[in-house]
Each structure stands twice: as structure tokens, then as C-alpha cells.
């Protein structure tokens, strides 16, 4: 059901008026009824009672006059008078008759009727008495007549008059009652009218009050709120108003609320738009891009500060309305225009504006700046132009372009520019029917330098290498760095292969000279692989690949040298890749075995140690020498797990040997840098039960290259366990005697190349002597490697070596051959054997490769 407040104001007013009307009509109808009965009473009074009273009064007068005439008639004797009186009496009688008839027509109540009837009877009796008396007057019986008149007529008249009085009294009584009733009816009617007036007044009052409260006031409030809205006070406008009404006022409220909400939205939108406009204006004003807008009349609409600053415009020219032509003339006059013909320039610009086309152009200013100009025509005429100072950007682009094509460290061309230059060189070669040599080179042991001395030293070294290379090559040649220590030289105009070898040797010599890199003295050498176009290839990729293979060969064949590409190298590289795949599975397939070679203590004449030398039983190739796979294992990161296996297995084997015989295990630099090394050694000793002092670790000088605190700390920790540390291959690497002082080695192993040369080369003998004397003074054992003959043994013994190792005593053999090796060594010491042990089955001639623990080529001494 609808709530009252939800009924519309119109309906409420209609309802109110209806109710008021109903009440008023009811009261009015009642009042009219009262007035009607009043009218009836009044009619009765005037129409009935008053005439009756008049009739009765008339009858009373007629009766009295008739009685008077009758009395006179009794007394007169004059005949004339008698006749007149008779006439009058007849008239009176006639009038009486008329009155009686009139009265009878308006007969009243039964009591009145009865009285009237009594009166009529008495009148009739009176008339009758007179009728009998009057004739007596003319006779002598006048006295009798008089008596009779007094005795009968007069009392009858009196009685009749009495009846008339009674009748009059009754009539008066009824008319008085009717008057009283009329009076009452009038009072009621009057009260009803007043009540109706009062009710109408109250209704009107209530209506007015209601309208004031419920219509006028809200309308006023809405009007006031509208005024406040107009004044901008739109926040608290309708707080006092009821908003739950559903009538016209409610609709007005909600319309107002809707209007206010929409106004608020509009205001918010306008505020946002204004904020946006301000932001845009601020952005436009502060953006680093010069911005200007001209109208169709070529007058300035807007320009920002950057635009004014770009062209150093005076303030007067930056105001809206400034003419485009003035601005341009100012810019030309200020010397910012580069061309020769300013007028023509202006004409061209003007034509561009007329064409209303979007134009993007780069404008070079006389002061060196470059402006990126975008001219954008606007729909209504005019145009918007952005002026972007791209000077720095262009420089950056040039720099980025340089960086994209040059190596960041050395500033040499990188792979991208190398490829471009290679293509140019090959194209030129094709035109001139000449040759181009690709010299691929890298540094020998650069990785070791990097790993041990740190990257800053490595970087400094590479920079110096780049500088030296640039000095060597001709201007039209290209030196590029392809990554790491990988360089390539494109040598143009090669007539003969010797031109390439000359350059290669120059490179090797230049790069092998000592360096001071980041404060460290470093010596490296370089290897070079040469491929020559068009014989070895006609595109850069092929030539590079072939040059790399030649480089690999140069490194494999001793480093610090150069090699030309040969067609079969590809096949060898393939073989190496297969070897790598096999090596990855070798440990899991238990294809490794440790061979041992005895070391003889020259003072006691007994075997003091066996060196553990790893062998790989390859399923198809037979026994593979470590010189073939250790460097590969280093490269592919397998040396750590393989080395751990060797330490564990060697300790286990040695634990079963006679007391006092140690086992020596080779450690590659990579293994030594592994943090797990110490725990591996401890675990191997624990597992085998081998005393720590029966384990010897052989490290090369490269481990000590870095000579960092971490390296020395690791050595100390291993040494503290009781493990012996030997410096292996001494003399082949950097041969810095200072390394011997940096750590208390237990043993120095003099490389076998010195032993071999000792017979012919005095310097080798001198070196052996110097090392043994140094070892003696530092309390270190000195072991001569590679003893193959009794003479060599005698020589090293004479030079003071304390230990000897070589084929004379035994070749490296499996662990099960230990007793046989001990037997043979005793025979050698006793002088029963003076020839080197024969080569065993499957053992191949060892290749001297210079990587990892195999770094002991004779060439390294050079
Ligand atoms: N011509 C000649 N050679 C002799 C003579 N006496 C010993 N040799 C050879 O000289 C090498 C001595 O080992 P190395 O200098 O530590 O040189 C080792 C060592 O640096 C490395 N190597 C061997 N086993 C391992 C290993 O388990 N771990 C690591 N990291 N390197 C190993 O491989 C190198 C080569 O090992 P092998 O081929 O076994 O070669 C052995 C041995 O067979 C001799 O009188 N004449």
C-alpha cells in the first residue's frame, strides 16, 4: 500500500478538497433541511395560525358587533333604525358565515375543532334565539322579548364568545409553539452554518499549513538550494530536505539531486578537464621539445619556453599573434639558418605550409645543433610544429652505432664490423683477383691468467694485446676481437702465403713480449691459425672456421706458433668432438684406470713414491693418454669429478702398499680452484685409512700464478693435514723462483726436458744445479723427471737431485704391477739394468700438449 507521503500533492489536495466538500455539503444539506422546516413552520404560522387568529378575532368582532346590534335592536323602536340594524345584523351574520367557512377550511387540532363546533352551535343557538325574540318586539311582548334576550341570547353569545376566546387561546398556543420551533430550527441552522464555516476555516487552515510545510517550504528549500548551487555552494545544499518522499516534491527533490549530481559530475569533469588543461599547459610549457602552434592567418597561437629557447626568440615574438614571417626572419637574422638563400628557404617553407602536408625533417642549425622538426597541419587551418633538439641523440646514436660495431673493451671492430669488413675485403679480392688472409689468433693460457690474476688483469692484458696488434697491421687490414682472447686479422693484398706467415710471426713475437697488466707482470704467448681466401673458402664464415681449425692445430702442436689450414683438419676436429662425447661417459662407465710410476730416493736407493698417472680405456681406441684427454676434460669442466675419482682411488691403492711409500697425485689448476678440494682429500684419506703424510699432491706453477691469499690459504690447509706438496714440471712455465719462496713446498720436480738436454746443453745442467741447490737451501726434495738412462741418473745424482723418476726404473703401470716395479727398481739400483723399460702394449708415444697439467713443452723454456 502506498504510504501517505508517497501520494502526490495533487491527489492529496483533491482528497483534502473532497473531504472538506463532503463535510460542507453534509453540514449544508443538514442546514437546508433545517431551513426548510423553518420555512414550513413560518408558512404554518403565516399561512395557518395567523389567518386563524385573524378569523377568530374577526368572528369575535362580528359576534360582539352582532350582540351590540342585537342589543340596540332590542331597545330601538324606530323603524328606520330597526331596518338599519337588521341590515347590519344581517351583514354581521353574513360575515360570520364567511369567517366560519374560512376557519373551517383551516381547521386545526381536534380540540380546536371541538371548540369551533361548540362555537358554531352556540352561534346558531344565539341566531335562533334572536329569530324568535325579534318578532316579539313588534308586538306587545316587547318585555318578554327583552327578558328572553337577556336570559337566552346574551348568555349564548357570551358562551360563544368564550368558545372563541378558547379557540383563540389554542390558536395562539399553537402559533407560539410553532414560533418557538421556528426559533429553534433557526438556531440549529445558524449553528450549522457557523459550524460549516468553522470547519471550512479549519480545513483551509490545515490545508494552508500543510501546503506551507509540505509544498512551499520544500519548494523554497529547493529554490534556495538552486540559488546556492548557482553561487557555487553545491556541497551542503539539500542537507535539511527529506529525500524519501515520492510525491511531486519528492520528484522535485530527486530531480534536484539528479541535477546536483550531474552538476557535481560536470563540475568534477570540468575540474578534471581544467587540471588536465593545466597539466597539458604545464607539460607543453616545460617539455624539452619546442612546441608552437600557428593559426590559419600564420599568427602564433602558442609557443612553449623550449621553442623560444631553441631559437633564442625575444619575448615580444613569443606572444600570441606574432607573425610567423617575423619569427622566421628573426631566426634567419640570428644566424640559425644554414643554407645560402634565406629568401628561397622562406619560400619553400611557405609552400610547405600552403600544401598543408605533414612534414618530418631534420634541420641542421649553424651552431651545430640538429633539430628534428615535425610540421603537422591542423584541421581548421594553421599548423602545430614540434622542434626536438636531437643533437645529443644523434651523437648517442653515432656512439651506439660505434658501440654496436666495436668491442667495448678494446675498441676493435667486433664480430658485426668484422663481417662487414670481411665481405668488403672478399668483394675487393674478387675484383682484383687477389688473396685475403684470415689470421685467427688467441692467447696461450689466457684463461689461466684471467682465472688466477683476475678479470681486471685479463682485461688490461687484452687491451694491450689490441694495441700491439693495431700497431702491427697495415691501415687497410682489419683487427677484430670476436670475444674473450679471440682475435682475427683480415690481411688484404696477400700475394704469397709467406705474407701471412710474416704477419703471423710478427703477431706472435709482439704478443709474447712481457706485459705489465694492471700492475702485474704477465707473460703470454699467442697461437695463430691462417686461412687464405679463395683457396680455403670464399665467405667469412668458412674462412673463420678454417682459420679456427688451423689455430687449434697450432695450439695442439705446442702453442706460440702458427699453422695454415689444411683440408684434413676438419676431420680431426670431428674426431675431437667424438672424443669429447665419449669422455663425458667415461667416468660413469668406469673406463678410467690409474697407472703408477715409481720415484727412487737417490740417497736410500729405495722407492719412495709412486706417481698416479691416469689412463682411459677407450672402448675402440684402446688406452688413451692423459695428454689427449686431460686438456679436453679441463675445457669441458669434467676435470673436477675425474680428479676427485683419481684422489680417492689413488689413496685406496696406496693404503695397501708397503709402509713409507707415498702416492703422488696430479692436480690441475681447475681442481685446485674448486672449494670442495679440501673435503675431497680429507674424505679420500678417511675412506682409505692412508696417513696424510703418504699423500703427495703435484701442482704446477700456473696454480700459483695468482698467488692470492685464497690460493695460499688452501695450500696451507692441505699442508696442515700433513699432505706433501710438490712443485711439478718446474722450469717449463713462468719459472719464477719467487714461487718457491711463497710456499714451503716439500718437493721440486725438475721437468724431464732439462734432464734430456743435460747431456748436450750446458744451460740445462746449470738450471738443474741451481734448482737442486735452491731446494737444498730451502729444505725441499728435488726430483729429476724423465730418467731413461743410467748416465742421466748419474748426472742428476751428481748435480744434487735427491729423487729420480723415469722409464729407466719403470714405465707407468697398473697398480697390480707395483711388486714388479719395485723389483725392477732394485735391479736398476744394483746396476743390473741400465736400459729404459720397454714400451707396454697399448701405450703410445706421448704427445706434448700444452694445456692444464700437461703444460711442460720444451718450447716453453724458450
Ligand atoms: N719420455 C718420457 N716420459 C716419461 C718418463 N718418465 C715419466 N714419463 C712421463 O712423464 C709424465 C709424468 O707426469 P707429469 O709430468 O705429471 O705429466 C702428466 C700429468 O701432467 C698429466 N696427468 C696424468 N695423470 C693425471 C691426473 O690424474 N690428473 C691430472 N690433472 N693430470 C694428470 O698428464 C701428463 C702426462 O702423463 P703421462 O702421459 O702419463 O706421462 C707421464 C709419464 O709417463 C721418461 O723417462 N721419458
TrEMBL record:
Domain of life where this protein originates: Bacteria
Per its UniProt record, what InterPro entries does this chain match?
Biofilm_reg_signaling, EAL_dom, EAL_sf, GGDEF_dom, HAMP_dom, HlyB_4HB_MCP, Nucleotide_cyclase, PAS-like_dom_sf
Q: Pfam families, per this entry?
A: 4HB_MCP_1 (PF12729), EAL (PF00563), GGDEF (PF00990), HAMP (PF00672), PAS_7 (PF12860)
Q: Which residues form the GGDEF domain?
A: 434-567
Q: Describe the location of the EAL domain by residue ranges.
A: 576-826
> Which SMART domains does this entry report, sorted A to Z?
EAL, GGDEF, HAMP
Region (Disordered) residue ranges read 831-862
Its transmembrane ranges are 192-211
| Biased composition annotated in UniProt, kind: Basic and acidic residues | 841-862
Ranges for domain HAMP: 213-268
Keyword annotations from UniProtKB, A to Z? Membrane, Transmembrane, Transmembrane helix
Q: What is this protein called?
A: EAL domain-containing protein
Amino acid at each position: 500500500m502506498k504510504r501517505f507521503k508517497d501520494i502526490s500533492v495533487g491527489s492529496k489536495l483533491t482528497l483534502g478538497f473532497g473531504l472538506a466538500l463532503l463535510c460542507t455539503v453534509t453540514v449544508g444539506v443538514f442546514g437546508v433541511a433545517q431551513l426548510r422546516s423553518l420555512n414550513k413552520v413560518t408558512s404554518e404560522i403565516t399561512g395557518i395560525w395567523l389567518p386563524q387568529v385573524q378569523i377568530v378575532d374577526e368572528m369575535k368582532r362580528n359576534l360582539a358587533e352582532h350582540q351590540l346590534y342585537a342589543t340596540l335592536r332590542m331597545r330601538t323602536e324606530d323603524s328606520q333604525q330597526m331596518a338599519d340594524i337588521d341590515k347590519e345584523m344581517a351583514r354581521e351574520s353574513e360575515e360570520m358565515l364567511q369567517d366560519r367557512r374560512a376557519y373551517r377550511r383551516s381547521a386545526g387540532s381536534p380540540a380546536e375543532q371541538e371548540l369551533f363546533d361548540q362555537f358554531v352551535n352556540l352561534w346558531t343557538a344565539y341566531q335562533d334565539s334572536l329569530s324568535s325574540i325579534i318578532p316579539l318586539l313588534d308586538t306587545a311582548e316587547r318585555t318578554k322579548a327583552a327578558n328572553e334576550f337577556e336570559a337566552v341570547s346574551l348568555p349564548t353569545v357570551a358562551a360563544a364568545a368564550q368558545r372563541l376566546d378558547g379557540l383563540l387561546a389554542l390558536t395562539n398556543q399553537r402559533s407560539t409553539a410553532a414560533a418557538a420551533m421556528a426559533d429553534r430550527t433557526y438556531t440549529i441552522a445558524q449553528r450549522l452554518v457557523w459550524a460549516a464555516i468553522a470547519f471550512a476555516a479549519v480545513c483551509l487552515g490545515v490545508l494552508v499549513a500543510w501546503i506551507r510545510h509540505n509544498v512551499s517550504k520544500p519548494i523554497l528549500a529547493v529554490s534556495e538550494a538552486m540559488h546556492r548551487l548557482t553561487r557555487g555552494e553545491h556541497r551542503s545544499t539539500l542537507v535539511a530536505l527529506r529525500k524519501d518522499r515520492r510525491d511531486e516534491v519528492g520528484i522535485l527533490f530527486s530531480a534536484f539531486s539528479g541535477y546536483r549530481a550531474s552538476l557535481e559530475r560536470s563540475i568534477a569533469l570540468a575540474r578534471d578537464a581544467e587540471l588536465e588543461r593545466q597539466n597539458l599547459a604545464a607539460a607543453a610549457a616545460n617539455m624539452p621539445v619546442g612546441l608552437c602552434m600557428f593559426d590559419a592567418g600564420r599568427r602564433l597561437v602558442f609557443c612553449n619556453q623550449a621553442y623560444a629557447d631553441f631559437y633564442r626568440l625575444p619575448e615580444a615574438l613569443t606572444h600570441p599573434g606574432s607573425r610567423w614571417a617575423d619569427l622566421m626572419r628573426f631566426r634567419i637574422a640570428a644566424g640559425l639558418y644554414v643554407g645560402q638563400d634565406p629568401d628561397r628557404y622562406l619560400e619553400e617553407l611557405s609552400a610547405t605550409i600552403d600544401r598543408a602536408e605533414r612534414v618530418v625533417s631534420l634541420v641542421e642549425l649553424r651552431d651545430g645543433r640538429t633539430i628534428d622538426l615535425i610540421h603537422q597541419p591542423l584541421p581548421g587551418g594553421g599548423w602545430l610544429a614540434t622542434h626536438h633538439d636531437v643533437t645529443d641523440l644523434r651523437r648517442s646514436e653515432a656512439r651506439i652505432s660505434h658501440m654496436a660495431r666495436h668491442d667495448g673493451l678494446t675498441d676493435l671492430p667486433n664480430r658485426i664490423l668484422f663481417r662487414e669488413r670481411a665481405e668488403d675485403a672478399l668483394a675487393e679480392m674478387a675484383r682484383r683477383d687477389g688473396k685475403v688472409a684470415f689470421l685467427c689468433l688467441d692467447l696461450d693460457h689466457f684463461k689461466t691468467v684471467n682465472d688466477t690474476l683476475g678479470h681486471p688483469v685479463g682485461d688490461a692484458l687484452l687491451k694491450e694485446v689490441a694495441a700491439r696488434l693495431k700497431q702491427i697491421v697495415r691501415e687497410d687490414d682489419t683487427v677484430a676481437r670476436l670475444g674473450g682472447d679471440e682475435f682475427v686479422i683480415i690481411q688484404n693484398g696477400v700475394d704469397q702465403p709467406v705474407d701471412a706467415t710474416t704477419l703471423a710471426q710478427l703477431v706472435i713475437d709482439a704478443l709474447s713480449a712481457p706485459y705489465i697488466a694492471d700492475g702485474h707482470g704477465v707473460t703470454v704467448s699467442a697461437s695463430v691459425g691462417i686461412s687464405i681466401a679463395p683457396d680455403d673458402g670464399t665467405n667469412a664464415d668458412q674462412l673463420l672456421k678454417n682459420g679456427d681449425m688451423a689455430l687449434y692445430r697450432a695450439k695442439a702442436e705446442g702453442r706460440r706458433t702458427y699453422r695454415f689450414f689444411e683440408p684434413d683438419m676438419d676431420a680431426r676436429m670431428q674426431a675431437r668432438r667424438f672424443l669429447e662425447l665419449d669422455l663425458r661417459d667415461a667416468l660413469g662407465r668406469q673406463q678410467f684406470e690409474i697407472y703408477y710410476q715409481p720415484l727412487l730416493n737417490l740417497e736410500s736407493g729405495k722407492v719412495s713414491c709412486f706417481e698416479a698417472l691416469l689412463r682411459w680405456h677407450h672402448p675402440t681406441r684402446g688406452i688413451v693418454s692423459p695428454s689427449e684427454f686431460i686438456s679436453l676434460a679441463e675445457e669441458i669442466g669434467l676435470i673436477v669429478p675425474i680428479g676427485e675419482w683419481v684422489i680417492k682411488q689413488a689413496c685406496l691403492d696406496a693404503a695397501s702398499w708397503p709402509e713409507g711409500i707415498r702416492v703422488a697425485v696430479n692436480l690441475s689448476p681447475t681442481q685446485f680452484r674448486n672449494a670442495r678440494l679440501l673435503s675431497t682429500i680429507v674424505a679420500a684419506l678417511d675412506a682409505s685409512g692412508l696417513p696424510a703424510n703418504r699423500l703427495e699432491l703435484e701442482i704446477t706453477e700456473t696454480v700459483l700464478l695468482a698467488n692470492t691469499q685464497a690460493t695460499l690459504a688452501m695450500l696451507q690447509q692441505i699442508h696442515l693435514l700433513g699432505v706433501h706438496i710438490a712443485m711439478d714440471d718446474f722450469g717449463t712455465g713462468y719459472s719464477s723462483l719467487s714461487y718457491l719462496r711463497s710456499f714451503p713446498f716439500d718437493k721440486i720436480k725438475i721437468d724431464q726436458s732439462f734432464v734430456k738436454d743435460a747431456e748436450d746443453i750446458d744451460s740445462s745442467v746449470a738450471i738443474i744445479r741451481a734448482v737442486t741447490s735452491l731446494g737444498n737451501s730451502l729444505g725441499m726434495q728435488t726430483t729429476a723427471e724423465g730418467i731413461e738412462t743410467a748416465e742421466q741418473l748419474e748426472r742428476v745424482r751428481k748435480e744434487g737431485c735427491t729423487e729420480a723418476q723415469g722409464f729407466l726404473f719403470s714405465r707407468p703401470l697398473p697398480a697390480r704391477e707395483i711388486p714388479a716395479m719395485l723389483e725392477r727398481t732394485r735391479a736398476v739400483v744394483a746396476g743390473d739394468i741400465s736400459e729404459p723399460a720397454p714400451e707396454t702394449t697399448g701405450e703410445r708415444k706421448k704427445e706434448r700438449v700444452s694445456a692444464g697439467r700437461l703444460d711442460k713443452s720444451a718450447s716453453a723454456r724458450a
